[in-house]
């Protein structure tokens, strides 16, 4: 665990660093509030900081305020060091966002237990954030393919349409559906069908730009939201997707299986609502199926 210390008294700073290092902590020692703030705002910053209240320049209390105002996450546990024992000063320190305080001269045993309490809080907070991120991911992604799920991809489309309306330009939608997928399930079983779904998703992800969004719309149907790309550009993209699926058979536990995709493209300017765009893409997909599958069709 990394601990930051900030104290402009060289002797005290060195002493504190030595104690902490003896206890096995990795120490980042800084001699001013400004330096401490930079270190706390850097990537992989220490999650626990011991800040001297009185420093020339930015004081410990000001560092606390700035950290709380400017950095929501990851949470940093802040301990103020003070020789002022007046109660109102402590209240001020805690109100500025400090989690705890220690008074100088330092009592080593007290430092040890207070640090342990702080680290426990940081560890609990890390666990909570991880659990929240896991749930957030689970709620927005399809568990089989890892793509955005139905609700999320629709939400993304609405957001992208609202954004394009502000900045101008167009958002395109591709609806893509695996051809005769039922046959794969019926012939080789549902699990092989799942393998194919996962691999189709993966091949699409490889081709997409980082700002394209791919969702599993349902069953063997996918929806792609393609920002900043109008009709011709999206048709070309859909064509690349189609080829990347049909070009090479899929390696599955039942052997190599050929798979094809039919795609419908809709591309409309600002002011169009999500429903209309999806309906247009759906109609185009339907035409692609009717006209023989393994092809791309586009709306007007
Ligand atoms: P078309 O070319 O007209 O799209 O024919 P299709 O066979 O692909 O379409 P159909 O709608 O008849 O069948 C889709 C099948 O996809 C039926 C359903 O059981 C299967 N399916 C839906 N979700 C999953 C899934 O998560 N895993 C697997 N293995 N199959 C699924
Ligand atoms: Mg299908």
UniProtKB/TrEMBL annotation:
Known EC number: 2.7.7.65
Catalytic activity, as annotated: 2 GTP = 3',3'-c-di-GMP + 2 diphosphate
Keyword Transmembrane listed: no
Enzyme class: transferase
A Gene Ontology biological process term: cell adhesion involved in single-species biofilm formation
Signal peptide: none
The entry's keywords: Phosphoprotein
GGDEF domain ranges (all copies): 169-300
Residue numbers carrying 4-aspartylphosphate: 52
InterPro entries on file: CheY-like_superfamily (IPR011006), Diguanylate_Cyclase (IPR050469), GGDEF_dom (IPR000160), Nucleotide_cyclase (IPR029787), Rev_trsase/Diguanyl_cyclase (IPR043128), Sig_transdc_resp-reg_receiver (IPR001789)
Classification via CDD domains: GGDEF, REC_OmpR
Domain Response regulatory: 2-119
One GO location term (cellular component): plasma membrane
One Pfam entry name: Response_reg
Protein name: diguanylate cyclase
The organism's taxonomic lineage, starting at the top: Bacteria, Pseudomonadati, Thermodesulfobacteriota, Desulfuromonadia, Geobacterales
